[in-house]
Specification:
This protein has 378 residues and is α+β, with helices and mostly antiparallel strands. It folds into three domains: 164 residues, Uridine Diphospho-n-acetylenolpyruvylglucosamine Reductase, domain 3, CATH 3.30.465.10; 84 residues, Alpha-Beta Plaits (2-Layer Sandwich), CATH 3.30.70; 76 residues, 2-Layer Sandwich (Alpha-Beta Plaits), CATH 3.30.70. The strands form four sheets. It has an eight-stranded antiparallel sheet with strand order 13-10-12-11-15-16-14-17, sandwiched between helices. A five-stranded antiparallel sheet has the order 3-4-8-6-7. A hairpin with a 5-residue loop joins strand 6 and strand 7. It is globular and about 65 Å long.
């Protein structure tokens, strides 16, 4: 494992790999190492890039090095009564850089936006071995190309982020979960759509396969109380609601946002138009799936033992895309982790990656589309 000690060292390692025609894989805490196809390439540890650079709670801006523990970042902002509004999550070892690079967002994403909406700026090293900076350390910035939106969710294929600037927001003073029981997927979607589209300002909505529908209301206590009082009337044609204790609700929200409790050796993450989530579940149920629905139905986690690609095919037929998150090495080698792109879009993505990484240093076999990146002229 290669272990740069600073940005200059990282630039040299990447530039030398490019000159030799070698591939490199960036790694923070290693919590997502089993995502994508198995590969045998040198690992570049980002461990040295850890720590808080600047945090100004009054300005709602945090600048932190990429390998800083996600747990530490969340604890830091929580201590100031603030939060990362896209509700990132991760297993042991997850770093803030890896979380943003993977585009991880929790249940609040439906109301607060994704990781890319909260990444204000960054410093990174390109595949040329050159440092570049994008965005700014302020909330309002409209100058130049919006490169932070490219880096978020890029899985380290556009550069090695060494520093990130994130927007933070005040944590809600009060948070209440309302629950309904016994709804079918279609009835649950209708209830969630009604709640999210109402003036009750519901911040998250999820539904679990055992018939539990969750609605989260957050804000100042008087406002939360008023909205919780109004929701049963707004949803009277859909379901009854009652409050759930926070300690009881927390693991249910975790199940909905991560899919971690689902049965089955395989796990798929499916994004699709929320109205199509009930049809997706109905078509896949003959395979013996377990599932959880988040983002009002726009995200469906599917757990199963069937090793085919039916989840991806059904998702595509319903206007969505499916990501293979957990599988054994043989299946990960045979089935691309990311949903295949149409030819034109795939070519465009390859050209963007080549602009940042002309020698394909970061184009390992982790993702199937990277195996063909060298077909493009540098």
């Amino acid at each position: 494992m290669l272990a740069p000690t600073d940005a200059q060292d990282l630039c040299a390692i990447i530039a030398e790999a490019g000159a030799r025609g070698d591939k490199l894989e960036l790694r923070g805490g290693g919590s997502k190492a089993d995502f994508g196809a198995p590969r045998d390439v040198p690992i570049v540890s980002m461990e040295a890039f850890s720590g808080v650079v600047d945090y100004d709670p009054a300005e709602l801006v945090l600048t932190v090095r990429s390998a800083t523990s996600l747990t530490d970042v969340l604890a830091l902002v929580a201590n100031e009564g603030q939060m990362l509004a896209f509700e990132p999550y991760g297993t042991h070892g997850a770093t803030i850089g890896g979380t943003v690079a993977a585009g991880v967002a929790g249940s609040r994403r439906v109301s607060a936006g994704s990781a890319r909406d909260h990444l204000l700026g960054f410093t990174a090293v390109s595949g040329r071995g050159e440092t570049y900076v994008a965005g700014a350390k302020v909330v309002k910035n409209v100058t130049g190309y919006d490169l932070p939106k490219l880096l978020a969710g890029s899985w380290g294929r556009l550069g090695a982020m060494t520093e990130l600037t994130l927007k933070v927001l005040p944590s809600p003073r009060c948070e209440v979960t309302l629950v309904a029981h016994g709804l079918s997927p279609r009835a649950a979607h209708s209830a969630m759509a009604c709640a999210l589209g109402s003036n009750a300002d519901v911040s998250a909505a999820a539904h679990l396969s055992r018939g539990i529908t969750l609605l989260r209301v957050a804000g100042f206590a008087p406002s939360v109380e008023a909205r919780c009082a109004a929701l049963p009337g707004l949803l009277r044609d859909h379901c009854g609601l009652h409050r759930m204790e926070a300690a009881e609700a927390a693991p249910l929200w975790a199940e909905a946002m991560t899919g971690s409790a689902l049965a089955g050796a395989l796990r798929w993450r499916i994004h699709l138009p929320p109205r199509n989530a009930p049809d997706l579940i109905a078509r896949l149920e003959p395979l013996g799936i377990d599932w959880a629905m988040d983002w009002g139905g726009a995200l469906v986690w599917v757990g199963l033992d069937n090793t085919g690609t039916a989840p991806r095919e059904v998702a595509a037929a319903l206007g969505g895309e499916a990501t293979l998150v957990i599988a054994d090495p043989a299946m990960r080698a045979a089935i691309p982790a990311l949903h295949p792109r149409p030819a034109g879009l795939a070519m465009l993505e390859q050209r963007v990656r080549r602009a940042f990484d002309p020698r394909g240093v970061f184009a390992t076999t982790r993702f199937a589309e990277d195996a063909h990146a060298d077909q493009l002229p540098a």
